[in-house]
Structure formats: structure tokens, C-alpha cells
Amino acid sequence: MAKKKLSADILDELHHVIVSRKGDNPEESHTARLFSKGVNKIAQKVGEEAVETVIEAVGGSKEELAAESADLLYHLLVLWEARGVKPSDVWEALEGRKGISGIAEKASRIKY
Ligand SMILES: N=c1c2ncn([C@@H]3O[C@H](COP(=O)(O)OP(=O)(O)OP(=O)(O)O)[C@@H](O)[C@H]3O)c2ncn1[C@@H]1O[C@H](COP(=O)(O)O)[C@@H](O)[C@H]1O
């Protein structure tokens, strides 16, 4: 069987699953459990997953870095939903930065 072609579309699919878990039983769904704990706890989890990603980036294998990155993206999507941010809001922000050098953008922010 042909292997499914994976792309960032999977983030939109995951977002739909995350939204569908709202109000579900926290005993049966990790996502529902996170929502039941509130934004502060979800934000804390994102911070933990970010640290774990950084640890794997400097000392782990590529596979471990990819796995921790997946954990981070999942928890970040849950955080966005908990704060009412849609993935498309973030995609728009990225789209708006296309063609703008990060270095030039930073220089434009420096005030003397
Ligand atoms: N991508 C993920 C995903 N990545 C990580 N995790 C879970 O995140 C948890 C992280 O474990 P930790 O011990 O760090 O955190 P914790 O259990 O909250 O413990 P504490 O930090 O509270 O002590 C694990 O239970 C992982 O299984 C995920 N849980 C769900 N998903 C996706 O979400 C979908 C829906 O999941 P449910 O909501 O559980 O049905 C799944 O089909 C997946 O596609």
C-alpha cells in the first residue's frame, strides 16, 4: 500500500481532533484532561515540552528531537485552542512575514 504523504496539513487535522475533544471525559481523553485543567496548566506543559525539545536538540538523536517536537506541537495546538487562537491565525502571521528578513525586521524595532 502507498505510504500516505505527510505534510503540515496534519496540524489542521490534529486541531480538528483537539476541538472535538472539548467537554469529553478527562478519564478517556488526554486533550479533555488538559482542557479541564485550564490555560495555566496547559501553558506550563508547553514550557516543559519546549525544554524537553531543547534537551533533545543539543544531546539527543534526530528521532528523539522529532518525537519531542511532536509533543510540543500537540500541546501548543491545545494551548491555542484554550486561548481561542485558530491555527489559521498563526498561518496568517507567518504568511504576513514572507519576504521580510528577520534581521531587517529586528533592526526596524531598535529605538535609539
Ligand atoms: N499528539 C498527541 C499527543 N502527544 C503527546 N500526548 C500525550 O501527552 C502526555 C504527556 O505526558 P506527560 O507525562 O508529559 O504529561 P501528563 O500525563 O499530563 O503529566 P503531568 O505533566 O500532569 O504530570 C502523554 O499522555 C502523551 O500521550 C498526546 N496526546 C494526544 N495526541 C493527539 O491527540 C489525539 C486525541 O488524544 P486524546 O484526547 O487522548 O483522545 C490523539 O489521537 C493524538 O493524535
How would the blueprint of this fold be written?
Blueprint: H1 9-20, H2 30-37, H3 39-59, H4 62-82, H5 87-96, H6 102-109
The structure holds phosphoribosyl ATP.
Radius of gyration (Å): 17 Å
Distance linking N and C termini: 61 Å
List low-pLDDT spans.
Answer: none
Count of DSSP helices? 6
Count of distinct strands = 0
Integer average pLDDT: 93
| Ligand kinds | phosphoribosyl ATP
> Could you give the order of the helices and strands?
HHHHHH
* Portion in beta strands: under 5%
Major β-sheet annotation: none
Q: What structural category arises from helix and sheet content?
A: mainly alpha
* Overall geometry: globular
What features would you describe in this structure?
- The protein has 112 residues and is mainly α.
- It has a domain at 61-90.
- The chain has helices spanning 9-20, 30-37, 39-59, 62-82, 87-96, 102-109.
- It is globular, with a radius of gyration of 17 Å.
- The mean pLDDT is 93.
- The chain binds phosphoribosyl ATP.
- Phosphoribosyl ATP binds at residues 14, 17, 21, 29-32, 45, 71, 74.
Characteristics:
6 helices; PRib-ATP_PPHydrolase-like; HisE; cytoplasm; ATP-binding; mainly alpha; phosphoribosyl-ATP diphosphatase activity; 112 residues; binds phosphoribosyl ATP
Task: Compose a concise summary of this entry.
Keywords: Amino-acid biosynthesis, ATP-binding, Cytoplasm, Histidine biosynthesis, Hydrolase, Nucleotide-binding. By secondary structure, the protein is mostly helical.
